[in-house]
Amino acid sequence: QEQLVESGGGPVQTGGSLRLSCAAFSDTVMAWFRQVRGMEREFVAQISQNGGRTDYADSVKGRFTVSRDVAKNTMYLQMNSLKPEDTAVYYCAAAKIPWATTAVDDYDVWGQGTQVTVSS
Question: Among 44, 57, 83, 84, whose CB has the most other CB atoms within 10 angstroms?
């Protein structure tokens, strides 16, 4: 399976910010997901092919911003006002269908993940 490459994760204090990047070698619909050990992978943010439309999980609305630079083949996730519950491994993903939703099964190209740890 083809994979993408995430970067930018690391430790951060509550209320701090991080900017994740994903090397994206296509202009398909893309998304960010996150997963905590022992729990299901959950949707975080989605962005359209040209970056004109975005969607967010309720838990991150107003705090996270997804964007993409199509020319640079890169997707970003700006994370502000981070909370301990944001701690997870973050994955970027590219959709396999043009009408992709927020469902994990709509994506077939994944990164290996980058750890984000938010401490108090």
Answer: 44
Cβ–Cβ under 8 Å, residues 29 and 100: yes
In whole angstroms, give the CA distance from residue 112 to residue 6.
Answer: 7
Cα-Cα end-to-end distance for the chain:
37
Closest to 102 measured CA to CA, from 29, 23, 38: 29
pLDDT in tens, 69-80: 988 889 999 999
- Average pLDDT score over residue span 61-88: 95
The tens digit of pLDDT for each residue in 9-46 reads: 999 999 999 999 999 776 789 999 999 999 999 999 99
For 68, the token pair is 């993409």
Q: And the tokens for 49?
A: 């092919």
Q: Are 113 and 66 in contact (CB under 8 A)?
A: no
Tokens at residue 73, please? 């083949």
